[in-house]
Every structure is written in C-alpha cells, then in structure tokens.
C-alpha cells in the first residue's frame, strides 16, 4: 500500500516520477505528490488529494520547476484522512527536506510527543511527518543525509519504506525498508528506487532487491547499501522478466479486462518449462525432495483471493499426495498459536509478495521451525525472500486491484507442486501424473474458449442486472472456493452485497436469504465424473428455484440436466473435476467486471482498496 518512486540522474525527473506513479497507482490512490530539487538547488513540492490525475492537472496548470533529483508518492491512507495536507511528501528542515513513506510507524505518537516538547510543529495527522521532522532534527546535527537517515530509522518501530532527499545534497536519494517493499533500478548514469519494478521498468530491467532493515543511497553514478548499523551489505541482482508494455492497458477498457483476457497466458506461462515428457520438473525446488518425502502436514496461508486459490489447491494436493492440507487466513494463523513442527510445510500464496498479513505469518512459521515455501508473482518481493523455497507464478504484472489472472496462475502453481510432491512420495504413478499434466496443459486453450464463447453474453447479463442489490454464489467441492471468489470479486468492484456458500450449507441457514428474484450463481460439477456431486447440486438448485431464486448456472458443455431449472446457463468445456475451477472462475470474473462497468464504476481502482496490502 502506497507507491514510492525515486530518481537521480541527468534527466528532468518530473515525467519519470509521474510515469512511475502511474504504474504504482494500483497500490493506493487517495492522494499523490512529488518533490524535486530544481536546477537552482531549491526543493519544490506539490501534492493533491485524489487520484494521480488531480496532481497531473495541478502541475499542468501551475508547473513546478524541474530538476534531476526527485521522489514521488501515491497514497493509501492510514493515519489521517485523504487530504492535501496528509498527502506525501512531508517536508521538514524549513522545507529543505522531503520524505515519503509506505507502511505504519507504530511508535509515531511517542516520537511526536518528544518532538513537540522540543518545539517542533506538525502540519498533518500522519505518522510520516514524524519521521520527516525527526530526520530534520538529525540532519541539523550532522549535515550528512545518510548518517541522519540512519539515526532516524533506528528510532522507528513498525513497517516502513522511507525515501528522503535534502536540497543541500542534490543528486542523492536515500531509502530504507523494514517489512515494506523497496527495489533499486540500475540505469546508465541514473538510478531509481521503487516500491516495485513497475516504477522504473520502462527505463531499466536491471534491478537489485534490498533486504530487511537496510538503507540505500542512490546517486547518478552509484548505489550503496548498508544495514542499519552502517555496515556495507551485498545485494542480490535480478533481471525483470517482463517489459514495460506488459504493464500497459494496450487498448483494453481497463487493466482488469486485459488481465482476465490474459488468464490463458497466465496459466500457460506458469506451466512453461516445468513439464518434461509428462513429468513435472520445477528447477527452483531442486534438492527439496527429501523434505517433500518427510512432510506430514501442509498449511497454506494467504489472504483474500490468494486464500481461495489455496482452498482449491487443498482438494488437489490432499487427493494426490495424501498429505493433510489446511488452509488458513494469514492474519488468523499468526495469532492463534498454531501447531508447527519441522515436518510442517507452510505454503504462502501472494500475488504481490508484500501482503503484510502473509509476510508476518511466514516469518512466524519460520521462527517456529516450520519449512516455508512461497508461491508468488512478483520478483524481488519480500515474502519469497523470507521463505525457504519459491515457486514463481508467471502471470505477468497484475495492475487491476481485483486479482484475476494471478488467481488461475496460483492454482496452476499449486497443482504443479502437488503433482511433484505426489511423484516424490510415490502417491501417484507416473501414468497418473502424466494424465493430470495433460489436463493442465489443456487449460489455457479451454479458458480461451470460455472467454470467446461467453464474454459478450455475460456482459449483456451484467447490464441487465445493473440494479441488482445482492447476488449469491453456490458451489460444492472445488466449486465452493470458486463461489467464494465470485462473491469477493463482486463485492470488491461493484459494491453489491454478495455471499459465497458451500451448496450443502444452504439448508443450514442461508436458504432463508432466498426470496423471489434473488439472483444465485450455481457452479455445477461435471455429471461425467461424479454424478453424486452433480445430482446433489442439481437438487440444491431445485430447492432455491422453489423459493423463487433466479438461477444462473455455470455448467459443463452438454450437461442437459441443469436446463429445466436454470434461467441462464453459462458453459465451460469438459475437464477433470479438479480442473474445473480454472474454467468456472472465468465467467465469474467476467460477470463482476461487466457489472462494475454497467454501474459506471472504476473497475481497476475500487473504493477503499489497494492492490498491495502492506499494513496489518
Ligand atoms: C481480491 C484481491 C485480494 C488479494 C489479497 C492478497 O481480488 O485482490 O483479496 O488477493 O489482498 O493479495 P496478495 O495475493 O498480493 O497477497
């Protein structure tokens, strides 16, 4: 949450900062601001509540003198409402010093009391301004920005990425991180800082990942990284695997529209290079077979959509490996003293790799002796760096706040992992693994078929339903997490009340919600593979129809049994039962997007949310 960008080099920095912020706006859009040290050596700053476009308009009307050192921020409000005053940057040292921040400084109140008692004054309600004023005080003592910054960050508790610059030291931006993200972009005679590589990928794909509790100082000609005591540290270089065009809308009406359309590719890219002659080969997991042979339990931790991917994965991994799998919301896991042993494998799932709840849960699991494996979509992110092993999803950058292509990529990665572990443990024969692998390889083509066949009809359905006030989703088995995902997506981007239920749970309470005209999406399992499950769901449909529900069914091609009971039937191609979720979720993603469009809402940037949730 909150996007951060910094630049030093020969070029005018404003356009670079604004372009970087545009790519980071998914991290928060309550306000935006930049600060630049101009060519006369003066620090100029502009910040505005609202989306980045408000700041751009302001800068167009009242330009700021440009310079070649600058920092920029896009905010997701925590301390203090989304106002101009609370927007970042925050200034100190009589306006000569600017600071931006992502995270929460937990001891800001104590520090503020200390600084007020010394006569310092504050303009905003933010925790960030406390760091700025503290840095100003330290700078006044040493006139050395790096030393002052070090003296400041050691006083801070909580989570933070901080960037700062001082007009007396142009050509220098300093940054620090603890439990919030920060990566370095290496250019020719110029260097960048960003919350993630999207901030600078149009300028360079050479990057460095900064570790916990480290400080970086960038100048046009160099990058120096040290720990909070001042000792130099080695940092890990990496190459960004996608280019700037991957993070552009490319003619689509929204990033979400583009990203749903990329779901086939997200699965295909996550499979690429990991299947050889019907065998799953995950090079990142070399050397871990002994661990996989010995684990007695798997705990999946994640939040939101990523947790639903985990729930889908549970059905497959348990069935294939016969190892018990639990799925737990990361924020619940950490606070309940869970049982963890060295034979527990804790799998975290995170698109951003920065979700604070998940990060803290991973650290907690490690501290208690469990082995940790991260499924992540973002290179250089913190969660994979804190884990014993990583399996990257290759969904490409996901910009829309609502997670879509990452979800199918996460399920794909879990399935690859499950098949690999099943082979290592001898729980599945080579032939069985090869059959499942074939199913997985067919998924991209089948998702593309759903997109081709159903997009227009779903958009029409969504427009008809634009005034709907509540939608329910029902599923059984792997359809249950898909019902949860369908409901989450709808709540998130259309602000309509939506609930997902296990279809069998209906009669235990939720059926009371059904009244004439209530729209209910029902995910119907294949009749070929499990007629028992299929028939149970068809019975559930009849129960809600009898009470006047308007039933929209997602069912396999050729399943005629649903026809008499459905108001609408959305079709998915034939697939094995465990593979159906990868197809059934597609109409639900399309529906949520269509309804948000029909209501005239901002599909990519729903209210109150941010893509990367870096606060607990
Ligand atoms: C829903 C959504 C969120 C995220 C959740 C975890 O569309 O995007 O529920 O799935 O905040 O985020 P990551 O995967 O980045 O850890």
Helix content: 25-40%
**Count of extended strands:** 26
Which class of the largest domain in CATH terms? Alpha Beta
- What is the architecture of the largest domain at the second tier of CATH? 3-Layer(aba) Sandwich
Tally of alpha and pi helices? 17
Strand content: 15-25%
Query: Order of strands side by side in the largest beta sheet?
Result: 3-2-4-1-10-9-11-14
Largest sheet: 8 strands, antiparallel
Q: What is the average of the pLDDT values?
A: 95
Number of domains: 2
Describe the model.
The N and C termini lie close together (11 Å). By secondary structure, the protein is α/β, with parallel strands linked by helices. It is 36% helix and 23% strand. Helix 3 crosses helix 4, helix 7 runs antiparallel to helix 14 and helix 9 packs antiparallel against helix 15. The protein has 2 domains: 3-246, 4-Layer Sandwich (Glutamine Phosphoribosylpyrophosphate, subunit 1, domain 1); 255-598, Glucose-6-phosphate isomerase like protein, domain 1 (Rossmann fold, 3-Layer(aba) Sandwich), CATH 3.40.50. The strands form 5 sheets. It has an 8-stranded antiparallel β-sheet, covered by helices on one side. Strands 5-6-7-8-12-13 form a 6-stranded antiparallel β-sheet. Strands 18-17-19-20-21 form a 5-stranded parallel β-sheet, with helices on both faces. It is built from 17 helices and 26 strands. Residues 303-306, 350-352, 355, 358, 402-403, 488-489, 492, 612-613 line the site of fructose -6-phosphate (F6R).
């Amino acid at each position: 949450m909150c996007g951060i960008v910094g630049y030093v080099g020969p070029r005018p920095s404003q356009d670079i900062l604004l372009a970087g912020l545009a790519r980071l706006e998914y991290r928060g859009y309550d306000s935006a601001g930049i600060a630049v040290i101009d060519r006369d050596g003066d620090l100029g700053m502009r910040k505005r509540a609202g989306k980045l476009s408000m700041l751009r308009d302001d800068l167009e009307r009242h330009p700021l003198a440009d310079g070649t050192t600058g920092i920029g921020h896009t905010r997701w409000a925590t301390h203090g409402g989304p106002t101009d005053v609370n927007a970042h940057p925050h200034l100190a040292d009589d306006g000569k010093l600017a600071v931006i921040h992502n995270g929460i400084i937990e001891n800001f109140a104590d520090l503020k009391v200390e600084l007020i008692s010394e006569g310092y004054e504050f303009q905003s309600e933010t925790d960030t301004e406390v760091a700025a004023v503290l840095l100003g005080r330290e700078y006044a003592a040493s006139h050395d920005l790096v030393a002052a910054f070090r003296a400041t960050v050691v006083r801070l508790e909580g989570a933070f990425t901080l960037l700062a610059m001082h007009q007396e030291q142009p050509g220098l931006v300093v940054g620090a991180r603890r439990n919030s993200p920060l990566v370095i972009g290496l250019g020719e005679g110029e260097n960048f800082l960003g919350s993630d590589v999207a901030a600078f990928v149009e300028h360079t794909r050479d990057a460095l990942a900064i570790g916990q509790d480290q400080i970086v100082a960038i100048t046009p000609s160099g990058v120096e990284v040290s720990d909070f005591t001042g000792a130099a540290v080695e940092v890990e270089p990496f190459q960004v695997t996608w280019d700037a065009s991957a993070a552009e809308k490319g003619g689509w009406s929204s990033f979400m529209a583009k990203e749903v359309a990329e779901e086939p590719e997200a699965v295909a890219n996550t499979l690429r290079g990991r299947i050889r002659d019907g065998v799953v080969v995950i090079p990142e997991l070399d050397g871990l077979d002994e661990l996989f042979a010995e684990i007695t339990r798997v705990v999946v931790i994640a939040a939101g959509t990523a947790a639903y991917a985990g729930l889908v994965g549970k059905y497959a991994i348990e069935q294939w490996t016969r190892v018990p799998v639990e799925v737990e919301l990361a924020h619940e896991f950490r606070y309940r003293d869970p049982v963890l042993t060295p034979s527990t494998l804790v799998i975290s799932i995170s698109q951003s790799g920065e979700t604070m709840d998940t990060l803290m849960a991973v650290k907690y699991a490690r501290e208690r002796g469990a082995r940790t494996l991260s499924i992540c979509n973002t290179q250089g992110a913190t969660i994979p760096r804190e884990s014993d092993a990583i399996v990257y999803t290759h969904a490409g950058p996901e910009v829309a706040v609502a997670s879509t292509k990452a979800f199918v990529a996460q399920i794909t990665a879990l399935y690859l992992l499950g098949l690999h572990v099943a082979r290592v443990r001898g729980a599945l024969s080579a032939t069985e693994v090869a059959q499942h692998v074939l199913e997985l390889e067919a998924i991209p083509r089948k998702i593309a078929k759903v997109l081709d066949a159903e997009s227009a009809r779903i958009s029409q359905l969504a427009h008809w339903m634009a005034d709907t006030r509540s939608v329910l989703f029902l599923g059984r088995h792997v359809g249950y997490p898909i019902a949860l995902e369908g409901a989450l997506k709808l709540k998130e981007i259309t602000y309509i009340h939506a609930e997902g239920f296990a279809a069998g749970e209906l009669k235990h309470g939720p059926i009371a919600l059904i009244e004439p005209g209530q729209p209910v999406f029902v995910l119907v399992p294949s009749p070929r593979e499990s007629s028992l499950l299929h028939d149970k769901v068809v019975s559930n449909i009849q129960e809600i129809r009898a009470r006047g529900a308007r039933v929209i069914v997602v069912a396999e091609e050729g399943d005629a049994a649903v026809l008499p009971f459905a108001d609408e039937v959305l079709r998915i191609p034939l697939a094995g039962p465990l593979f159906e979720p990868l197809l059934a979720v597609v109409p639900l993603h399309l529906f949520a997007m269509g309804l948000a469009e029909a209501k005239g809402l901002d599909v990519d940037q729903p209210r109150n949310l941010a893509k990367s949730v870096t606060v607990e």
